[in-house]
């Protein structure tokens, strides 16, 4: 992991591919997140979506996470939806399979929309059937819906 200063220096270099720039902006976003500087974290995560032709799922999840931290579920769901649109059986990455589905489930649960949340967690479990958090979420939703 690079320091914030090293990441800023690397971003200034002109020899980076789009994917490398996206990764650098996401990593830089995390350095601000650690300091609870969410506005700056959001700025750099947003830049990660701009430098690529199509926003990558990891960048969309990152932005969704920053909105979720601040309990802005409407905006978090929008970014998780962008990530979910990239979900694929062809790409073996948590950002392109189960993670955005799980995160959308969490937002829907926060809003009290348990029926819709169940659909998302079941989809997440297709990609990652042994994930403990997803299994627990599904059980909690089913228990709530029985009441």
Overall mean pLDDT = 92
Quick one: biggest sheet?
none
What shape does the CA trace take? Answer: elongated
CATH topology of the largest domain: Serine Threonine Protein Phosphatase 5, Tetratricopeptide repeat
The count of DSSP E runs of length 2 or more, i.e. the number of strands, is 0
Following the backbone from N to C, one meets helices and strands in this order, namely HHHHHHHH
- The helix fraction, in percent, is over 70%
Q: Regions with pLDDT < 50 over 5+ consecutive residues?
A: none
The CATH class of the largest domain is Mainly Alpha
**Overall tally of structural domains:** 2
Q: How many whole angstroms does the radius of gyration measure?
A: 16 Å
Number of helices in the DSSP assignment: 8
**First and last CA, distance:** 47 Å
Structural class: mainly alpha
What does this 3D model show about the protein?
It is a single chain. The chain has 147 residues and is mainly α. It folds into two domains: 1-53, no CATH class; 73-147, Alpha Horseshoe (Serine Threonine Protein Phosphatase 5, Tetratricopeptide repeat). The protein is built from eight helices and no strands. It has helices spanning 4-12, 18-34, 38-50, 57-69, 73-84, 99-111, 114-127, 132-146. The longest helix has 17 residues, at 18-34. The mean pLDDT is 92.
Task: Give a quick summary of the entry.
72% of the residues lie in helices and 0% in strands.
């Amino acid at each position: 992991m690079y320091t914030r200063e090293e990441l800023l220096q690397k971003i200034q270099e002109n020899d980076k591919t789009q994917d490398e720039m996206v990764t650098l902006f996401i990593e830089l976003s995390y350095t601000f997140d650690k300091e609870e500087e969410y506005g700056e974290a959001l700025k750099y995560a947003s830049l990660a979506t701009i430098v690529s032709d199509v926003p990558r799922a990891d960048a969309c999840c990152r932005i969704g996470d920053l909105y979720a931290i601040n309990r802005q579920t409407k905006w978090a769901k929008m970014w998780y939806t962008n990530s979910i649109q990239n979900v694929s059986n062809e790409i073996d990455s948590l950002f392109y399979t189960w993670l955005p589905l799980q995160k959308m489930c969490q937002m829907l649960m926060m809003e009290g929309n348990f029926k819709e949340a169940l659909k998302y967690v079941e989809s997440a479990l297709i990609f990652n059937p042994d994930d403990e958090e997803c299994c627990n979420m599904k059980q909690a939703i089913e228990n709530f819906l029985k009441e």
